[in-house]
Amino acid sequence: MAEGIRRLPSLNGLRVFEVVTRYLNFRLAAEEIGVTQGAVAQQIRGLEAELGLKLFDRLPRTLALTEAGQSYVTNVRRAFELISDATETLKPEQLHLTISVTPTFASKWLIPRLPDFTAAQPNIDLRILASDRIANFQTDAVDLAVRYGRLPLGSGLNAELLFENVLIAVGSPLLVEKLGPPGQDGNFPRYPLLHDAHDSWPQFLELAFPDNLPTTAKNIRFNQTSLALEAAIAGQGLALTSTFFVEDDITSGRLLRVLPTELTVGSDFYVVSPRKPRHPASVAAVKSWLADAAGR
């Protein structure tokens, strides 16, 4: 017959002990647990009697862990974490996932491909958080993010390249027909330039026209690349954009690449996730789909 587990101290007493070690105050511990201060003190006295050890020194305004108490709480916390992990593995993984992306990435790349995602992963409830603010994986309950930047992107994170960021200039075919090809016959100064928050036009123009920087008819500024692109589609000027944002617009004829110049800025788009994700199967499935959709 298998040997049973050796007799353990009161698990309720151990739980109270762990809470008290965080506050070093019976009253505050009692508030967290939802019992009286006297009940907390009684649980600690009982645990100390059961162990035959003093776990706390009672000081005038606070408590202090004894050497034995300090050693004990380290192992008690580890044991509670093991129990918690074992319990979590019993639960079926929730098939939802929150992904944080920029508004431009959402509108110009992700949302048009959501029907493909739904077909490929019908059981995952995808929640899209579109914001220029960098989401926090813990406080914002984000599972996955597409971030623009340079490595490293943060400690404790996995970052996998999704798109290299190569900028091209685009405009409406109707505007090009009206003003003439921007790269020919001094036509470029006729075109208004549509800027976004990255403001890469000066760098792009130095590369495109190294010998004679053109003047521009007008500069219009937006805080989102997607807004600059919508203005370009509407024929209001030329915009700079990452190539993958406008693949669909160029294919459909809404936009036209107007110059052969390509600007590589050194910051790229990465899929970022915690090294220990809350929902590993869902995160792995969405990362795989993103990589396939990006042609990686």
Automatic annotation (TrEMBL):
Transcriptional regulator of the ttuABCDE tartrate utilization operon. It comes from the Bacteria. The keyword Transmembrane helix does not apply. InterPro entries: LysR-type_TF_proteobact-type, LysR_HTH_N, LysR_subst-bd, WH-like_DNA-bd_sf, WH_DNA-bd_sf. Belongs to the LysR transcriptional regulatory family. The keyword DNA-binding applies. GO terms for molecular function: DNA binding; DNA-binding transcription factor activity. It comes from Rhizobium tibeticum. Pfam families: HTH_1, LysR_substrate. Keywords: DNA-binding, Transcription, Transcription regulation. Residues 9-66 form the HTH lysR-type domain. This is HTH-type transcriptional regulator TtuA.
